[in-house]
Amino acid sequence: MARIAIIGLGLIGGSLGLALKQSRLRDVELVGYSRSRKTREKARRAGAIDTIAPDPASAVRDAAIVIIATPILTIRQMMEEIAPALPQDCTVTDVGSTKADVMRWAEEILPQHVSFVGGHPMAGKEQTGIDAAEAGLFEGKTYCIVPSPTARETAVNSVVGLAGLVKAVPVYMDAEEHDSYVAAVSHLPLVVSTALFSLARDSLAWPEMSQLASSGFRDVTRLASGSPEMSHDICRTNRENLVHWLNRMAQELLKYRDLIQGGDDEELLKAFARIQLERDVFIARGAQRREERAAATEPGISITDLLVGDWAGRRAREMMKGLEQESRRKDKRNGDHGRKR
Amino acid sequence: MARIAIIGLGLIGGSLGLALKQSRLRDVELVGYSRSRKTREKARRAGAIDTIAPDPASAVRDAAIVIIATPILTIRQMMEEIAPALPQDCTVTDVGSTKADVMRWAEEILPQHVSFVGGHPMAGKEQTGIDAAEAGLFEGKTYCIVPSPTARETAVNSVVGLAGLVKAVPVYMDAEEHDSYVAAVSHLPLVVSTALFSLARDSLAWPEMSQLASSGFRDVTRLASGSPEMSHDICRTNRENLVHWLNRMAQELLKYRDLIQGGDDEELLKAFARIQLERDVFIARGAQRREERAAATEPGISITDLLVGDWAGRRAREMMKGLEQESRRKDKRNGDHGRKR
Predict the structure, then answer these.
(1) Which domain holds residue A41?
(2) Which residues contact residue B89 at a Cβ distance below 8 angstroms, ignoring those fewer than 6 apart?
(3) Number of structural domains in chain B
(4) Is B199 in contact with A248 (Cβ distance < 8 A)?
(5) Per the domain annotation, does A208 fall within a domain?
(6) B62 burial via Cβ count (<10 Å: 0-12, 13-18, 19+)
(7) Does A234 touch chain B (CB under 8 A)?
(8) Residues 183-212 of B with CB under 8 A from A
(9) For the residues B272-292, what does the mean pLDDT come to?
(10) Higher pLDDT, B337 or B159
(11) pTM score, two decimals?
């Protein structure tokens, strides 16, 4: 029996626990810790963990894998608390929305005898906390894997294996790539959604306007209802990239303004038609990937397989190959259009 | 037996037909016309209309109420086609997303013996066409009623009655108010959604980025998948208002950029927390209104009731009173905050 420790039992930590319990992983004990006693107990009752640890250090003692699933700005402090208690050769990972700061903290704080492999499952919803946790949260979603330079290969394979066990699709990248990509497709949408809501809400005509706000407005502003702490932490740890993309988004809006103001109807229609088509392709490809992932069956695996990592490494290599092939096919298809406006 | 004519049998026209058939309206024949023979036949098979008309003029002959549910830029031409055939005292309405142009066309083109009452149900989805039509599309949604200055009171009441029959909530406003409000809460979100998708899609890193794009990106860019023709028509008929709001949105994004760049963490956290709270209030109020509307039962009414309009007038006055009271309560609650940044 080996131990996996989950520190932080909110939406992501709780869902990871539930997903691992429903996975084919055998002979493992999930130990959980949350600052809130209520959350810890809820997580155990919900079956997200087997055992409650009274503090972070006890949670990681004897753990083969430690998953830090706290808010980003708490990760640093959590690393400090667990560092002295981490067993030899332990694999430590996290689920934070940005990676450059986290990788720096790991290098600074964690002992050299452990391997840190940053992680970021691209899954979420606006509800937070253990009550919103669900085993299927990661199904078919991309799981970013950001190994530290000193991480052992088996440790990297273990985290890739974890991602596979919760039915996510692991994708390797470095911290800078990760932060610049998520700035565009995750953090920019968050701020755009928030700014759109605040602009309308702060208008003097809001009492009348809000009666006309329908499902379109609701969907586009959905991310404005996310956790303020998480939004704040994201802005703070990914500031430069986000500022870059906010500038570009403001420019993009003014491009559309000029197009609308310019009065070239055919050009306007073509712009909307191109984007509709591109988005349909994007949505269809995502659905296909999720279906393929859901259909894939994994053999029952033991914690030893996971820790030795051969199984996961093999599986990961197959997956990466598939993704690379898909990416090449895509590049080929898109070679002659799509990158100009 | 009286006639209601529906010209244009797409998502909105088809859904209106289905909703009216499921309503408590008695003794009425729904006559439908669509340019596409396939659509006309689908609409009849789906039960959205009783009878197919071979052309717009035949559809409106003997009709007590005519609903023009074509794309906005086709409305003008449709008015020209039906004008000579419209019976004395007929009520004509539309469902276009902008109202100022439509009201102008009606004044210019329709004969003086009919009453034009502009309409705009605030309901939609990104799928279009008769296949996407559903009877419940309007349930609890706001239905804007924009009477022309010369419309008879009974005609206004009839359109208010129609809105009630499809379980929408009728709200009176003038065309300029309507167009400025929908510019902010419907057309701006459409362009923001499209611009966000095009910005990411046109990035050189899109092949990698798109793998990290999760449900947040998908939701915020959903409107980019709407009908390009409709988006184009909206931009063309609501140009000035939309340009105004695009400028304000670009400024709002730069405000957030400054807030994020500025490094005052508490202010940033407070901004996100305020918007989260405000949006929760907005969502809860919408859900409450929909529930109230769904729970309201209507007596079975005859087409005569609808046309004489007393029933609808009474019902509408009750509804408007309720909405005004709610609006006053809201203003009172929000009196000391919320409109400043």
Answers:
(1) 2-173+293-322
(2) B113, B114, B115, B152
(3) 2
(4) yes
(5) no
(6) middle
(7) no
(8) 184-186, 188-205, 207-212
(9) 90
(10) B159
(11) 0.84
